[in-house]
Amino acid sequence: MLEEQIENAIQELRESKNTDLCEExxxxxxxxxxxxxxxxxEAGIFRPAVLYQDASPEVRDKLIDLxxxxxxxxxxxxxxxxxxxxxxxxxxxxxxxxxxxxEDNPRPWRKSLYVxxxxxxxxGGWCIEDGQRKSLFxxxxxxxxxxxxxxxxxxxxxxxxxxxxxxxxxxxxxMLVIDGSDERLSFLGINGKIKIKYCPGCLPWTExxxxxxxxxxxxxxxxxxxxEDYIVEDEDINDQTPIILSRKMVPKSYCxxxxxxxxxxxxxxxxxxxxxxxxxxGKLMMHLAQLGEELSGCGTHYIQICRDCKLATVxxxxx
Length: 319
Description:
By secondary structure, the protein is α+β, with helices and mostly antiparallel strands.
């Protein structure tokens, strides 16, 4: 049955350039088929880029060959931007080597881009740090779901905190309470319980808020500047349906831009991929969780973490 679905999805892509079925199989069933990337490449389709996450070395090398030439016309009708995003999604050590090469020795197409190749690496969820490829997300992924029948122990939504934001006077919110002792979340490497705390009134106006956490369940919002004099009422926050973690792991690319929430996995950004530089160690923070509008209430929230410095940040994107 699944093989038939894959064949139908590829046929749909080739005949009508409709990628919906391919994307659905990747995100919800974890299908890892190089045939998706092959068919997309042959059809000149590069979005959604997740089609290329399991591309064959042959497709990868064809994309590299297109970009690794000095002839400015070699790309033909293809755009360097599209090829770079597809390669970033493939993101293996070979791609990392060429991204560094093109960063150090720009090809003619570089002048048509706003940023260099290494900035595109973030679209695939990785970077080069200290000369080595570093993943910016966890392969393991568990869905976040609403549940009217959740027990207090299972509920990951912490509700309002006792502190209020000095800027807008909204109560801080413990967006997620994550228990590192839960076997499902052992991949996070958290030795205890942490709270991701933020101000819901200021986040849409500041795009990113930081908190410092301890592994005994406490956290402190780091003072921020800017925002809007907009109060989010406590009752609106505490009326939220409890959030639970799925019992079974879901595919690493489970999340879409607006739908499907999860801890772990690859984030799906509405705008350009946006990973925060840790203000203490200067390294890019890792993606921890994504909350779409069904849980956030407004916009998509991306939570990132620096486990070395015990800092978390909540980032915000909206159309």
